[in-house]
Amino acid sequence: MHSDLSPTISRRALLVGGTAVAASALFPGIPRAAPVEPKVIELSAAPGRVSLVGSPDTETNVWCYGNRIPGPDIRLRQGEPVRLVVRNQLPEDTTVHWHGIRLPNAMDGVPGLTQPPIKPGEAFTYEFTPPDAGTFWYHPHADSLQQLGRGLAGALIIEEPEPVPVDRDLVWVLSDWRLRSNAQIAPGFGNGMEAAMSGRVGNTVTVNGVVSEDEPVRAGERVRLRLVNTSLARIMALRFEGHRPTIVAIDGQPCEPHEPDNGRLLLAPAMRVDLILDMQGEPGRRYRVVDDFYDDLSYWLTQLAYKDEPPLRAHPPDSPLRLPRNPLPEPDLTNAELRELRLQGGMMGGGGMMGMGGMMGMGNQASWSINGHSMTGDGHAGMPPLLTLRRGRSCVLSMRNETAWWHPMHLHGHSFRVLSRNGAPVPHRQWADTVLVRPKETVEIAFVADNPGDWMLHCHVTDHQVSGMMTVLRVA
């Protein structure tokens, strides 16, 4: 945004060898294969210093993975097991949530609910086999406001078995920061007034860790662009001037290829969208990527900067844009359990709340609720489930937003089909793990509750989550 302003691994070899088999049993769509050794990746969370605003003389104090912002792109292959050793070098507890991955409950990274928090100086080993190809991401689920707001986030890419026919595969990790004039992160996380409204929206947006002036492209090339919104609260509405992007996946799940409505791509916190961009601009020219979600606060995120050289090809490739589907179980809508969640509270909102205490260490009372119940913080032991779903049963979940604010609602451990908005069918066969629910809107989603355990469901405007808009769904 352009503005003025080292423990050893503790898992046994038997566990390692069984990872792929266990995953294929949990998700029957994955072909059963002989056990293979997992790919081992080490990741450290620690304080660091980086240049967010582009000046090498002005560095920002951050918390980061692998001593960089964003954290390292982790690239894995669909159906192949991985072992991720996370070391905590922060001054407080942490965890890692592998956002959007359908994995075993014990690997989901919610402190107290699915694992003990990782203490400073200690490590935790996450093991899973990703069943789905697509664009995912990783971030803490402990002291989320501070840890995510100080930079702890990274892209997690699960590659298809066969390469997608594009010239380049690009990832843009989009992050929102509230910086002071000296480029340091402003204090004030957990402000009660902000929490009851739109959350902590910053004044600086980075692309892959820097304020971006331009992104180099070549005329005639076809690019797969993976967008990941890691912001605490900023919702984006992106327009690619002079271009016609095609959406081919949402939250890692392929959809019917389509252009965004009115050329405006909505991307709320935690959401990901995969685009196919055919670069049909003129060599030597620049085309802005504009975010105009907030009234009177439009800005340009970056520019597509065309190299001054002949086009790679005269016309777009003839290869199909559709991505191969993932092995998601199709919900049985005829025999599904019907459940309702009412999103309540906030400034200018209504609805009663039964709080479970204040925000994490901040002394503020809950501002939000789901069905009249508020769960605050980041997850803890003893969180009672709001709903219990029978394992293997299809569920249609209606989320009715009774508030005056937007809520990107994220369900752990599952992907769901987005069926309707205010009774109107949603086109293009859209699956997601985070759905943006507009003020006063009702959204219906459907999924098969095939992943056992206690799973968080919460708003991914992080201020909303930690001040009450969070609950637990139990699959048993």
TrEMBL record:
Keyword list (alphabetical) reads:
Metal-binding, Oxidoreductase
Chain intervals for the UniProt region annotation (Disordered): 309-331
Q: Does the keyword Secreted apply?
A: no
Matching InterPro entries, A to Z? Answer: Cu-oxidase-like_N (IPR011707), Cu-oxidase_2nd (IPR001117), Cu-oxidase_C (IPR011706), Cu-oxidase_fam (IPR045087), Cu_oxidase_CS (IPR033138), Cu_oxidase_Cu_BS (IPR002355), Cupredoxin (IPR008972), TAT_signal (IPR006311)
Under SUPFAM superfamilies, the record lists: Cupredoxins
CDD domains for the chain: CuRO_1_CumA_like (cd13861), CuRO_2_CumA_like (cd13885), CuRO_3_CumA_like (cd13906)
- Keyword Oxidoreductase in record: yes
User: What Pfam families does the database record attribute to this sequence?
Assistant: Cu-oxidase, Cu-oxidase_2, Cu-oxidase_3
Per the database record, which ranges form the Plastocyanin-like domain? 58-162, 170-290, 382-475
Enumerate the PROSITE patterns for this protein. MULTICOPPER_OXIDASE1 (PS00079), MULTICOPPER_OXIDASE2 (PS00080), TAT (PS51318)
Protein name per its UniProtKB record = Multicopper oxidase family protein
What is the organism of origin for this protein?
Bradyrhizobium zhanjiangense
